[in-house]
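retry 2 of 3: previous attempt timed out while embedding phosphoenolpyruvate. Reduced batch size to 1 and resubmitted. Inputs unchanged:
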Amino acid sequence: MTQEIRKKIVAGNWKMNGRRAFAKELVAAIAAQPVSGCEQIVCTPYPYLSGVHDQLSGSALKLGAQNVSEQEDGAFTGEVSAEMLADCGCDYVLVGHSERRSLYGESDQVVADKFVRALDSGITPILCLGETLEERESGATEKVVARQLDAVVAATGIAAFARAVIAYEPVWAIGTGLTASPQQAQEVHAFIRQKLAKEDVQIAAGVSILYGGSVKADNAAALFAGDDIDGGLIGGASLDADSFLAICKATTK
Ligand code: PEP
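retry 2 succeeded.
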Protein backbone atom coordinates (compact mmCIF):
# COMPACT_ATOMS: atom_id res chain seq x y z
CA MET A 1 0.00 0.00 0.00
CA THR A 2 1.45 3.39 -0.91
CA GLN A 3 0.87 6.81 0.51
CA GLU A 4 -1.13 7.89 -2.57
CA ILE A 5 -4.08 5.81 -1.56
CA ARG A 6 -4.41 7.66 1.74
CA LYS A 7 -6.93 10.44 1.76
CA LYS A 8 -5.55 13.97 1.97
CA ILE A 9 -7.69 15.79 4.50
CA VAL A 10 -7.87 19.33 5.87
CA ALA A 11 -10.28 19.92 8.75
CA GLY A 12 -11.07 23.40 10.04
CA ASN A 13 -11.72 23.60 13.77
CA TRP A 14 -13.62 26.83 14.26
CA LYS A 15 -13.66 26.36 18.04
CA MET A 16 -16.10 28.73 19.82
CA ASN A 17 -15.95 31.45 17.17
CA GLY A 18 -18.34 33.11 14.77
CA ARG A 19 -22.06 33.66 14.59
CA ARG A 20 -24.68 32.34 12.17
CA ALA A 21 -24.00 34.96 9.49
CA PHE A 22 -20.24 34.38 9.73
CA ALA A 23 -20.70 30.62 9.41
CA LYS A 24 -22.90 31.04 6.37
CA GLU A 25 -20.45 33.34 4.64
CA LEU A 26 -17.37 31.27 5.43
CA VAL A 27 -18.98 28.03 4.28
CA ALA A 28 -20.23 29.64 1.08
CA ALA A 29 -16.74 30.91 0.25
CA ILE A 30 -15.09 27.53 0.93
CA ALA A 31 -17.74 25.45 -0.82
CA ALA A 32 -17.46 27.66 -3.90
CA GLN A 33 -13.86 26.53 -4.47
CA PRO A 34 -13.56 22.76 -4.05
CA VAL A 35 -9.98 21.53 -3.95
CA SER A 36 -9.75 18.33 -5.91
CA GLY A 37 -7.86 15.54 -4.17
CA CYS A 38 -8.40 16.98 -0.69
CA GLU A 39 -11.27 16.13 1.65
CA GLN A 40 -12.27 19.46 3.18
CA ILE A 41 -14.09 19.48 6.50
CA VAL A 42 -15.56 22.30 8.56
CA CYS A 43 -16.00 21.57 12.28
CA THR A 44 -18.51 24.21 13.31
CA PRO A 45 -19.96 25.02 16.74
CA TYR A 46 -22.94 22.80 17.62
CA PRO A 47 -25.69 25.39 17.05
CA TYR A 48 -24.68 25.87 13.42
CA LEU A 49 -24.35 22.22 12.39
CA SER A 50 -27.82 21.80 10.96
CA GLY A 51 -27.79 25.12 9.11
CA VAL A 52 -24.38 24.41 7.62
CA HIS A 53 -25.49 20.91 6.69
CA ASP A 54 -28.44 22.33 4.75
CA GLN A 55 -26.15 24.85 3.09
CA LEU A 56 -23.71 22.10 2.09
CA SER A 57 -26.19 19.97 0.23
CA GLY A 58 -24.72 19.20 -3.18
CA SER A 59 -21.24 20.34 -2.15
CA ALA A 60 -18.17 18.15 -1.56
CA LEU A 61 -17.40 19.94 1.70
CA LYS A 62 -17.90 17.70 4.75
CA LEU A 63 -19.38 18.59 8.10
CA GLY A 64 -17.70 17.91 11.43
CA ALA A 65 -18.46 18.55 15.09
CA GLN A 66 -15.86 19.51 17.67
CA ASN A 67 -16.95 17.19 20.45
CA VAL A 68 -19.40 14.42 21.30
CA SER A 69 -20.71 12.90 24.48
CA GLU A 70 -19.28 9.58 25.64
CA GLN A 71 -22.82 8.70 26.73
CA GLU A 72 -25.75 7.50 24.70
CA ASP A 73 -29.12 9.24 25.04
CA GLY A 74 -30.36 9.99 28.53
CA ALA A 75 -30.17 12.31 31.52
CA PHE A 76 -26.95 14.09 30.61
CA THR A 77 -27.90 17.76 30.66
CA GLY A 78 -26.02 19.85 28.15
CA GLU A 79 -24.46 16.92 26.32
CA VAL A 80 -24.83 16.07 22.63
CA SER A 81 -24.87 12.42 21.56
CA ALA A 82 -23.25 10.88 18.52
CA GLU A 83 -26.68 9.85 17.26
CA MET A 84 -27.74 13.52 17.40
CA LEU A 85 -24.66 14.54 15.45
CA ALA A 86 -25.43 11.90 12.83
CA ASP A 87 -28.99 13.19 12.71
CA CYS A 88 -27.64 16.70 12.00
CA GLY A 89 -25.64 15.33 9.07
CA CYS A 90 -22.18 15.20 10.62
CA ASP A 91 -19.60 13.13 8.78
CA TYR A 92 -16.76 13.67 11.26
CA VAL A 93 -16.19 14.58 14.89
CA LEU A 94 -13.07 15.65 16.77
CA VAL A 95 -12.37 13.52 19.83
CA GLY A 96 -9.73 14.23 22.44
CA HIS A 97 -8.77 17.71 21.27
CA SER A 98 -6.17 18.98 23.74
CA GLU A 99 -8.50 21.79 24.85
CA ARG A 100 -11.06 19.14 25.82
CA ARG A 101 -8.40 17.09 27.58
CA SER A 102 -6.86 20.00 29.49
CA LEU A 103 -9.80 22.38 30.09
CA TYR A 104 -12.55 19.79 30.58
CA GLY A 105 -10.54 16.98 32.12
CA GLU A 106 -11.19 14.37 29.46
CA SER A 107 -9.20 11.26 30.31
CA ASP A 108 -7.82 8.81 27.78
CA GLN A 109 -10.71 6.48 28.70
CA VAL A 110 -13.36 9.15 28.09
CA VAL A 111 -11.75 9.96 24.75
CA ALA A 112 -11.81 6.25 23.85
CA ASP A 113 -15.50 6.05 24.78
CA LYS A 114 -16.26 9.07 22.57
CA PHE A 115 -14.38 7.44 19.71
CA VAL A 116 -16.53 4.31 20.09
CA ARG A 117 -19.77 6.32 20.19
CA ALA A 118 -18.85 8.16 17.01
CA LEU A 119 -18.07 4.96 15.14
CA ASP A 120 -21.24 3.28 16.39
CA SER A 121 -23.23 6.18 14.93
CA GLY A 122 -21.49 6.05 11.57
CA ILE A 123 -19.42 9.19 12.16
CA THR A 124 -15.68 9.22 11.47
CA PRO A 125 -13.76 10.19 14.61
CA ILE A 126 -10.71 12.41 14.24
CA LEU A 127 -8.64 11.31 17.22
CA CYS A 128 -6.38 14.11 18.50
CA LEU A 129 -3.10 13.17 20.18
CA GLY A 130 -0.23 15.30 21.38
CA GLU A 131 2.22 16.17 24.10
CA THR A 132 2.65 19.31 26.19
CA LEU A 133 5.83 21.40 26.05
CA GLU A 134 6.96 19.97 29.37
CA GLU A 135 6.45 16.44 28.07
CA ARG A 136 8.39 17.18 24.88
CA GLU A 137 11.24 18.80 26.78
CA SER A 138 11.50 15.84 29.11
CA GLY A 139 11.71 13.45 26.15
CA ALA A 140 8.26 11.93 26.82
CA THR A 141 6.59 12.74 23.46
CA GLU A 142 6.42 9.16 22.19
CA LYS A 143 5.38 7.79 25.57
CA VAL A 144 2.48 10.27 25.83
CA VAL A 145 1.26 9.79 22.27
CA ALA A 146 1.54 5.99 22.67
CA ARG A 147 -0.49 6.08 25.89
CA GLN A 148 -3.24 8.20 24.26
CA LEU A 149 -3.35 5.90 21.23
CA ASP A 150 -3.22 2.67 23.23
CA ALA A 151 -6.31 3.66 25.21
CA VAL A 152 -8.33 3.86 22.00
CA VAL A 153 -6.86 0.74 20.39
CA ALA A 154 -7.64 -1.18 23.59
CA ALA A 155 -11.25 0.01 23.46
CA THR A 156 -11.93 -0.58 19.79
CA GLY A 157 -9.32 -2.91 18.34
CA ILE A 158 -7.13 -1.95 15.44
CA ALA A 159 -9.77 -2.65 12.76
CA ALA A 160 -11.68 0.46 13.86
CA PHE A 161 -8.85 2.61 12.50
CA ALA A 162 -9.97 1.75 8.98
CA ARG A 163 -12.84 4.16 9.73
CA ALA A 164 -10.95 6.83 11.65
CA VAL A 165 -8.54 9.70 11.20
CA ILE A 166 -5.73 10.68 13.57
CA ALA A 167 -4.51 14.22 14.22
CA TYR A 168 -1.14 14.75 15.85
CA GLU A 169 -1.25 18.13 17.56
CA PRO A 170 1.62 19.09 19.85
CA VAL A 171 -0.16 21.07 22.58
CA TRP A 172 2.61 23.67 22.66
CA ALA A 173 1.92 24.48 18.99
CA ILE A 174 -1.85 24.98 19.23
CA GLY A 175 -2.86 28.61 18.95
CA THR A 176 0.63 29.76 19.93
CA GLY A 177 2.13 30.59 16.54
CA LEU A 178 4.80 27.94 17.24
CA THR A 179 4.82 24.95 14.93
CA ALA A 180 6.65 21.70 15.12
CA SER A 181 9.37 21.69 12.47
CA PRO A 182 8.48 19.52 9.47
CA GLN A 183 11.04 17.02 10.76
CA GLN A 184 9.63 16.97 14.30
CA ALA A 185 6.14 16.47 12.91
CA GLN A 186 7.19 13.72 10.51
CA GLU A 187 9.04 11.87 13.29
CA VAL A 188 5.92 11.66 15.45
CA HIS A 189 3.66 10.80 12.50
CA ALA A 190 6.02 7.96 11.53
CA PHE A 191 6.05 6.78 15.15
CA ILE A 192 2.23 6.68 15.23
CA ARG A 193 2.04 4.79 11.93
CA GLN A 194 4.73 2.30 12.97
CA LYS A 195 2.95 1.71 16.23
CA LEU A 196 -0.30 0.94 14.42
CA ALA A 197 1.62 -1.24 11.95
CA LYS A 198 2.65 -3.53 14.79
CA GLU A 199 -1.06 -4.39 15.04
CA ASP A 200 -1.99 -4.30 11.35
CA VAL A 201 0.25 -3.16 8.50
CA GLN A 202 -2.54 -2.46 6.03
CA ILE A 203 -4.64 -0.42 8.43
CA ALA A 204 -1.58 1.57 9.46
CA ALA A 205 -0.72 2.30 5.84
CA GLY A 206 -4.26 3.45 5.07
CA VAL A 207 -5.03 5.74 8.01
CA SER A 208 -4.75 9.47 7.36
CA ILE A 209 -2.67 11.25 10.01
CA LEU A 210 -3.14 15.02 10.09
CA TYR A 211 -0.79 17.55 11.66
CA GLY A 212 -2.22 20.39 13.73
CA GLY A 213 -0.66 23.34 15.52
CA SER A 214 -0.44 26.83 14.04
CA VAL A 215 -0.61 25.63 10.45
CA LYS A 216 -0.91 28.64 8.14
CA ALA A 217 -0.97 29.18 4.39
CA ASP A 218 2.76 29.90 4.39
CA ASN A 219 3.98 26.86 6.35
CA ALA A 220 1.46 24.22 5.24
CA ALA A 221 3.32 22.90 2.20
CA ALA A 222 6.53 22.33 4.16
CA LEU A 223 4.67 20.52 6.93
CA PHE A 224 2.59 18.40 4.55
CA ALA A 225 5.70 17.29 2.64
CA GLY A 226 6.43 14.60 5.24
CA ASP A 227 5.74 11.05 3.99
CA ASP A 228 3.43 10.30 6.90
CA ILE A 229 1.63 13.65 6.99
CA ASP A 230 -1.68 13.48 5.16
CA GLY A 231 -3.08 16.94 5.77
CA GLY A 232 -3.93 19.21 8.65
CA LEU A 233 -6.25 20.09 11.50
CA ILE A 234 -6.47 23.85 11.40
CA GLY A 235 -7.69 26.23 14.10
CA GLY A 236 -7.15 29.97 13.64
CA ALA A 237 -6.38 29.86 9.93
CA SER A 238 -9.62 27.99 9.20
CA LEU A 239 -11.62 31.11 10.06
CA ASP A 240 -10.50 32.78 6.86
CA ALA A 241 -11.62 31.21 3.58
CA ASP A 242 -8.53 32.21 1.61
CA SER A 243 -6.15 30.82 4.24
CA PHE A 244 -8.14 27.64 4.61
CA LEU A 245 -8.27 27.09 0.86
CA ALA A 246 -4.55 27.76 0.46
CA ILE A 247 -3.85 25.15 3.16
CA CYS A 248 -6.14 22.66 1.38
CA LYS A 249 -4.27 23.28 -1.87
CA ALA A 250 -0.95 22.67 -0.11
CA THR A 251 -1.95 19.00 0.41
CA THR A 252 -1.96 18.40 -3.32
CA LYS A 253 1.49 19.84 -4.09
C1 PEP B 1 -6.56 23.31 16.71
O1 PEP B 1 -7.40 23.95 17.30
O2 PEP B 1 -6.70 22.09 16.58
C2 PEP B 1 -5.40 24.02 16.17
C3 PEP B 1 -4.46 23.32 15.59
O3 PEP B 1 -5.38 25.38 16.32
P1 PEP B 1 -4.35 26.42 15.61
O4 PEP B 1 -4.27 26.04 14.16
O5 PEP B 1 -4.95 27.75 15.82
O6 PEP B 1 -3.04 26.22 16.29
